[in-house]
Structures are given as C-alpha cells and as structure tokens.
UniProtKB/TrEMBL annotation:
Its main location: membrane. This is AP-2 complex subunit alpha. The keyword GTP-binding does not apply. It comes from Oikopleura dioica (Tunicate). Transmembrane segments: none annotated. Belongs to the adaptor complexes large subunit family. Residues 714-825 form the Clathrin adaptor alpha/beta/gamma-adaptin appendage Ig-like subdomain domain. It comes from the Eukaryota. Adaptins are components of the adaptor complexes which link clathrin to receptors in coated vesicles. Clathrin-associated protein complexes are believed to interact with the cytoplasmic tails of membrane proteins, leading to their selection and concentration. Keywords: Coated pit, Endocytosis, Membrane, Protein transport, Transport. InterPro entries: Adaptor_Complx_Large_Subunit, AP2_complex_asu, ARM-like, ARM-type_fold, Clathrin/coatomer_adapt-like_N, Clathrin_a/b/g-adaptin_app_Ig, Clathrin_app_Ig-like_sf. It is found in: Membrane, Coated pit.
Amino acid sequence: MPTVAKDGMRGLAVFISDIRNCKSKEAETKRINKELANIRSKFKGDKTLDGYHKKKYVCKLLFIFLLGHDVDFGHIEAVNLLSSNKYTEKQIGYLFISVLLNDGNDLVNLIIQNIKNDLSSRNPIHVNLALHCIANVGTREMAEAFFNEIPKLLISKEDIDQVKQSAALCMLRLYRAAPDLLPSGDWQNRVVHLLNDSHLGVVTAASSLIHALAEGNPDALSRIVTSTYQDLQDYTYYFVPAPWLSCKLLRLLQLFPPPSEQARLIECLEVILNKAQEPPKSKKIQHSNAKNSVLLEAINLIIHLDNDAVCPLLVRATNQLGQFLNHRETNLRYLALESLAQLAQCDFSREAVKKHLDTVIQALKTERDVSVRQRAVDLLYAMCDRSNAERIVQEMLAYLEAADYSIREEMVLKTAILSEKYATDYNWYVDVILQLIRVAGDYVSEEVWHRVIQVVTNREDIQGYAAKTCFDALQQPACHENMVRVGGYILGEFGNLIAGDQRSAPLVQFQLLQTRFHLCSSTTRSLILSAYIKMINLFPEIKTNIEDVLRSDVLQKNSDIELQQRALEYFKLSAISASNTEMLATVLEEMPPFPERESSILAKLKKKKPAAVKVIESPTNGHGDDKAKSLPVAKMSNDPPMPAAAPQQSSQDLLVDIFATPNTAAPAAPAAAEPAYGLTNMDDPFGINSSPAAPPTAAAAPSEPPPLIDSHCQKFFLKNSGVLFEDENLQIGIKMEFRERLGRVQLFYGNKSSSVDISNFKANVESIEGLKISTHQEAPNTITVGSQFQHIINIESMKDFDNFPVLNISGLYGGKYLALRIAVPLYMTKFAATATMDANQFFQRWRGLEKPDQQSQSVFKTASIDREAGMFH
C-alpha cells in the first residue's frame, strides 16, 4: 500500500502488522473477523465518516480480500470515494472497484456515471484513473458504456500524451472483450496518425491497437502511414533502440499486402540484417534477446513479402539463421529452426535452407529439449524435395525408435506423406509404411494404414510386391495389430499373386492369418474374416479349411455380435456358392480403385499444425521436377464410361482419401455393380462395421474427433467419485483410489435407454507423459438396456504432469454413431503423500538426497485462485 506512509493511515499499518505477526492460520482468521466486524459497524452506525476514514477502511477490506478472504460489503463506500476530488481517495476507490468487480456484478451500473464524469474531466489524472479502471474490469458492460467515449480521447488534439496512451490500451482491452461492439467512424483512419506521435508510449500503444484492428477488420485500415522517428535513440534497451516498438511495427506490416514502392522498406530491412551481424555491444543476455527479437520479426516480414525484390534478403536471412543452429542458447536454436521452416517454403531461399540439412539432422539426434527436436522435424519436413527425400525419410525412421512419445504420431504422419509424395519407386513407399508400423505401431493412425491399402489397390505394378512384403512381415514373431490389418486386407485381395510360391501357398497364407486371429481385437478379426471369404473365391482348394473355422462354435456362438453375424453369413455365402459359383465371384469381385481425393493424412496434419503443411499444398514447390503425381484410377469392366465433360482433378489434390465423402461431381457406378466386399460406404472400406452382404445401415464415424469434454474436472479436485458424463443414452461414473504413487480408477458405464442396446462399444484411456496407464479390466463390447458395466484402470505416477488423460469412447446406439472424448480428472496432487515436518527437518532430509534422480522441483506462477473449488489455476 504505497499511500499508507504518505497519508499516515496508522490504523491500516497497525492492522497489516498484526496480520503478519499471527502465528497460525486460526489467529489470522480471528483477527480478520474482528476487523471485519469493526468495519461493518463503522459503515452502518457512523454517519459522519469522512473521506479519510472511508479510504482507510476500504484499504483494509482490499487487503483482506487479497489475503484470500471473502469481502461482501464496502462496495458502496468505495463507489462514494470515486466522487471525491482528492486523488488519494479517488485512487483507492478505483483500486477497490478494479480488483473486486467482476463480470455480471450489479455494481457496474452504479459506477458508470462516476466514470463518465471523470472521462470528461479536465484533470488528466482523473481521466487516466477512469481509463485504467475500465481496462482492468474489461467487461462487455464496460464496452457498451464507453466504446463511443474513448475514441474521442484517442484522437483529441487537446489531451496529453499519457491520456492518449492509456486510451489506446483501454480501447484495445475493450475490443478484445467485445469486438462486435466496435464503433464505426472516421476515428479508425485517424488513429493511424498516432504512429507519427513523438511520444514513444503513444506510438507503442497505438501500434498494438492498430495491429488488433487490422487483424479483425483489415478493410477498415487500408493503409499504413510510414513515418520517421527522431527520438528512438532516446529510448534504448541494452543498446537496442525501442525493440518493442520495432517488433510491433514489423508485425503490423505483415498484415498487409506488399506495398507497390518497397525501396524504403527494403532499405530498413537491410539495416536490421546488417546490425544483427555487428559485434555485440554487451555480453548480457538482454542485449542478445532484444537484438534477435527485432531480427526474427524482420525475417518474418521478409518471408511475408517473398518477391524478386527481397530475394537477396531471403538468402541473407537464411544464412544468418543457419549460424544460430549451433548457438548455445536453446531458445535461439528453437526460433532459428522455426524461421528456417518458413524460409524453406519460399522459392528464393529453399536451396539455401537445404544447405543446412546435415546440421538439422544432427540437431534431431543430439538436442536435449524435445521442443527443439520438434522444430527440427518440422524443418526436415519443410525442406524435403525429390533430391533429398529418401535421406530425410530414412533419418526420420531411424530417429522414430527413440523419439519422444509426444511427437511420434506427428512424425509418422509426416514420414508417410513425404514417402508417398516423393516416391519414384512405390515399392520403397510400401517398405517405408510397413517399417513405420513395425517401429511405431501404436502411433500409426488409421489414416496411414488405410492410405497404403488405397495406394496398393490403385497401382497394379506394386500389388504383388506388397503381398509378398506383408506376408513376410506377418511371419515375424513381433507383429503389431496394424500390420495384421494391412496384411489381412492385402492377402485377401492380392494373395493370389504370390500363391505360386510353395512358401506362400494359399493354405500357408490362411494358416498364417489364423495364427494371428485370436490375438487381435474384434475389429481386426472382422477384417480377417472378410479376407477368408475372399480367399474362398481365390483359392477353392482351401474352402473346406476356411469353412471349418467359419462354422466353429468359437465364432458362430461368439458374444461379439459382429463376429457372430459375419461368421454365419460368410459360411452361408460359401455354402450357396457350391451350386452357384458365378454368384460368389460377382459378390467377391476385386475391390475397384478408390477415387482421387485429398489425403486424410494431410487433412489430419493440417489440423495438428496448419502452418507446417504449406509446402505439400503447392504442386511444384518452385521446382518443375517436384510436381506430384496423382494416382491412376484403373477402370473396372462394370464401371460406367467417364463423361467427356467430367471435371479434371485439381492439381492440389496431391493425396487422396479412402474415408472422405465421395465427390458429388464424379460419376458413380450403380449400386448393383459394386462388389459386396467393397460396399459403397467410403467410411467403412473394409466392411468392418456393416453386414457383409448388404449396404451398411450404421451411421458413419465422424471424420473429425469430437471436442474434449473437461467441464467436470474442477469438481473432482477435492473428491474422488461422482458422475463424469451423462446424457439421454449413457451415464459414466467414476471412483478413484490412491496410495502414494499408485492409483486405481473404476469407470462405470450405464445404458439409460429402455429399448436400445449400445453395441460395438469401445473405451480406452490414452497415456500421457508422467503417467503409466494399464487396463486391469476391459470395457464390455455391448451394454444392454438398463445394464451397467465396470471398467478398471491402474495408474502409476512416474513424474510430475500437467495434462489430463483422455477417455475415448465409441459405439453404435440405435443406428447413430457415439463418439466422446472425456478428460479423466487425475490431478498430480492425488498422488501426494502427507508428511508433517518443520522447515529444519525438511531441508535436512532434502540435503540427504544425494542422487540426481532423487530430487525434483518445479517453480510456477498461478494465474488465479478459485476459492469455491479450493484450487489454483
């Protein structure tokens, strides 16, 4: 409280001293309750309180609130202080209102008129106090009340610089709170002229406001007035003139198209690049940070311009960033890799970036910081072209075995995209994908292994090689389930291409798949059954062996309704074929080529990191030899002829998607001409979720993951049981038990319906860094009407963590697809064990920990305290 000493509020000083001298929490609470009672009695009973005493008591209430105690009175007295002409009293009133006022508080309406009076005051100090209060509260009600008032202060010729600076920042705060209420008028054009102001504070605040306005409505600010600054040298930070202002202006220019006259702008950018190469004027890290921040923002502007005029600057920027790749500062290496990834997408600097390939690969292998390794992966992906694709893919495959779990899935996606885009030999592409599955099977998403199946189906020249390679992979002792899926599908379709070799005879292929059958999930077993019925058509000599499996009690009386139905219908189909072989051949005809569409792999990568895939979207990437080839679509004999006016495939559809919605502009074959094994539902190309002899009736799975549900997490901070999720169909309950680092989570799934079962039900909890999660009891496959099942998960805390594990749920409910992502409320504090000791005992035990892995500490700041939930944010 800076005003305590000046105003001599001895009572406040004594109260603060008493609180600090309290020996326990109970003593502090007792002293505060006594003071609250005294203040309440003064406000209610003493009608002659002057401004000084009101100010003193309001200060006490504010101090009590900042200690974490509730304050439910005194607001009216604080509002009364706003009417005072004394600065100290008005200041305390505004301070109290700014701290205790929140969105939706009825007190807002009481203070609006007081604030308006101060905004129109001729005293700039009062105006500034009002502006600071508006910005600190920053609610929608504040925007509605003052949005039309503040622009007048912003462009007034009478107001002093400090008022203009505060008005610009206040306007920015209200615009972020309610952008739809932004007032129109000429003030938006006039605010640009604040960049010519001689006061650096006004220019800096105005540039932040202009940047926000230009992002939200670029048409409202169609031009930027360039200006010169004579006084920048008077405002330096560790020998760097106005670094914050320079960065703001450089960032602002990136929101607009390149100007027609660029000579002056290029000259400024050259000066920045030249100064960055000068010997440092100080060895302190602050000087390096300030200088490099301006340099990196200038490089971003050069990338934004990206034309012939800045071609030399692009090459210079690339070379300067290359020098940072071996810098001792981790942050600088990170930023250099990030900027080089952008430069790799520019035609003029791409070759210069490729010269640093060895350094980037070395960084991928030796960097200790996972975020820097992530940026190295992004740069390798961005700089890849036909000349270095094979090396980059092999290096990423080699690193994948030791890569952090947090980046494995993204690395798999990028490796799959690069191997297909730049494949000159598609046998190599098949090898790469299968190696991805072998090295990181758990992180190979459905999009990846679906894609390799589509490529093989559409290219006749690699079908035999793919069948032989998958057959060899299935013979390995350790075989991931994704490998079984790929191998099962390809052998079912193209196993006849390798059946001439006794080592891969039809019976050997069937027996090989059968050895994997009982070790797989229900979905994979459904796919293998589809492969079996295809084998009956391809290899009549093993029909009896396959029928023995299909009619076994293990399948025809299986608790999984999908497996049971497939076994029954496939066996019946095989029996009918004895008298009608043509019917079986027609139903089980080879899958037709998939239509060309944008790759689901590329779409998934765009969702994860939109800026990282721009290089793939360009058909040439600046080099004629890198133009991507679209996959040929082979015509089946029963396909209708293509119309002469059929639209051409876009050059940007470089990869296609076997799961995307069919293109309505493309011609479609009649339903009767489609083979039953393929079906017309592109969301289920393998017929896994549908009946084998009829079009699927179940709803298709959504192409995008559902949003994460985490609104329930706070209520579990202090309790371990309750309802995680509930709607009209499903209720999910949770019960958690913890013993030091070990935890046990019981999930209860209840079907609330009175008529419909939930089928194909799947539930799994994703592991996160810091937690080891294992399933003790699996969730059921079907939840019948009115029933409840239990799903048990064991948790072990390995180190500190700050994310929630995610429970993924899917299933079918009355023909509708059920998909949920729910945060499991596991907090790090739940694994803590209580230990009572004083400070001396604690530090004595701490110093006794000799090994480095016995100590772990983390320092962090809290943004706010939720008193109702009893937790920090």
